[in-house]
């Protein structure tokens, strides 16, 4: 089975390292949400009229394809790249590693893995928020035909959504670029720790994909993990900037889209074409598109409804009949 098409159970999640899988009510404030709003850009309160329109949109469509982006996870405490005033691009000169640079440069791989190693304990501990949980409940009520996420944080799986495609992969898996063996990120963390018993660094900043900011001096002496099967280069099983989503994954989502009645975009500006292509296809097929996202998106001109408000606040007010 292709890595992007897992259908999961709670026991499977625990076997994959998610030891603290918990359930929350969609109306209840989740543990981290109270202190995570600094990563959410300012927005107006959602209006009654907008909520009425979104309720009608959900009621009118029985098989909704949901496309989520980083904006849904900022309410869990994970920063994003593009949010106005609070995203990485607005607050830092750091930029994500390019795929070709990662392949070509041992120094860049050392920098990447050192930063990822330091950031992993925090990144892997984030909880799903109200928005994730609401979408999981919608799936249980058979309102969601399929959920496609551009996020690599596995928070939809932690919220127990099952019909999920991780368009950009998952930071919770690591793949060998030579033999294609896939490992759990938790196992690689143990491997790195064993290889670097005296190396230590810390940082207070967190990037959207789980790494942190470290100086060149801090990175010195860090030993990069290699595949324990063949000695090959290890890379998190995510789509780096400059890389492409595998064609089978794209076609799988196109097929699920064709089976759907409508598309709901949650927390994405759709600036990256890998997700925007599905909006183009949906519009070409005459499917209605609704958007919940703070700030402009590329799909605003073709949407039947756009709500610029927090994802969890909006989704938790919808009643599934």
From TrEMBL:
Q: Which residues form the Deacetylase sirtuin-type domain?
A: 41-321
User: What's one Pfam family here?
Assistant: SIR2
Instruction: Name the UniProt key words of this record, in alphabetical order.
Output: Metal-binding, Mitochondrion, NAD, Transferase, Zinc
The answer, when asked if Nucleotide-binding is one of the entry's keywords, is no
- Cofactor(s) demanded: Zn(2+)
Q: Which InterPro entries match?
A: DHS-like_NAD/FAD-binding_dom, NAD-dep_sirtuin_deacylases, Sirtuin, Sirtuin_cat_small_dom_sf, Sirtuin_class_II, Ssirtuin_cat_dom
- Cite a GO CC annotation: mitochondrial matrix
Q: Where does Zn(2+) bind?
A: 176, 179, 227, 230
Query: Could you say which residues bind NAD(+) here?
Result: 69-89, 150-153, 267-269, 293-295, 311
For the protein in the UniProt heading, the enzyme class is transferase
What is the similarity comment for this entry? Belongs to the sirtuin family. Class II subfamily.
State its role.
Answer: NAD-dependent protein deacylase. Catalyzes the NAD-dependent hydrolysis of acyl groups from lysine residues.
This chain belongs to which protein, by name?
A: NAD-dependent protein deacylase
Q: Which organism is it from?
A: Pomacea canaliculata (Golden apple snail)
């Amino acid at each position: 089975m292709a890595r992007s098409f897992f259908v999961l159970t709670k026991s499977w999640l625990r076997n994959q390292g998610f030891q603290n899988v918990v359930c929350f009510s969609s109306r209840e404030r989740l543990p981290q949400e109270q202190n995570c709003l600094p990563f959410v850009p300012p927005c107006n309160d959602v209006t009654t009229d907008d909520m009425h329109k979104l309720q009608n949109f959900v009621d009118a469509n029985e098989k909704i394809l949901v496309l989520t982006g980083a904006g849904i996870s900022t309410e869990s405490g994970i920063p994003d790249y593009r949010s106005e005033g609070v995203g990485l691009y607005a607050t830092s000169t750091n930029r994500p590693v390019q795929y070709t640079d990662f392949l070509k440069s041992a120094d860049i791989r050392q920098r990447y893995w050192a930063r990822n190693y330091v950031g992993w304990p925090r990144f892997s501990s984030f909880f799903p928020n109200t928005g994730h949980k609401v979408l999981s409940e919608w799936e249980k009520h058979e309102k969601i035909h399929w959920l496609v996420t551009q996020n690599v944080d596995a928070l939809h799986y932690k919220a127990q959504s099952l019909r999920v495609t991780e368009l950009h992969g998952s930071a919770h898996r690591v793949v060998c670029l030579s033999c294609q063996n896939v490992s759990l990120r938790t196992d690689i963390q143990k491997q790195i720790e064993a290889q670097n018993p005296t190396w230590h660094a810390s940082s207070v900043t967190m990037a959207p994909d789980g790494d942190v900011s470290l100086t060149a001096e801090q990175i010195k002496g860090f030993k990069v993990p290699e595949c324990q099967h063949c000695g090959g280069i290890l890379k998190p099983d995510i789509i780096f900037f400059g890389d492409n989503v595998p064609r089978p994954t794209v076609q799988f989502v196109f097929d699920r889209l064709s089976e759907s009645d409508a598309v709901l975009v949650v927390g994405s500006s759709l600036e990256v074409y890998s997700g925007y292509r599905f909006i183009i296809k949906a519009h070409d097929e005459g499917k209605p598109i609704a958007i919940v996202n703070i700030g402009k998106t590329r799909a605003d001109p073709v949407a039947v409804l756009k709500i610029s408000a927090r994802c969890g606040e909006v989704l938790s007010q919808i009643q599934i009949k």
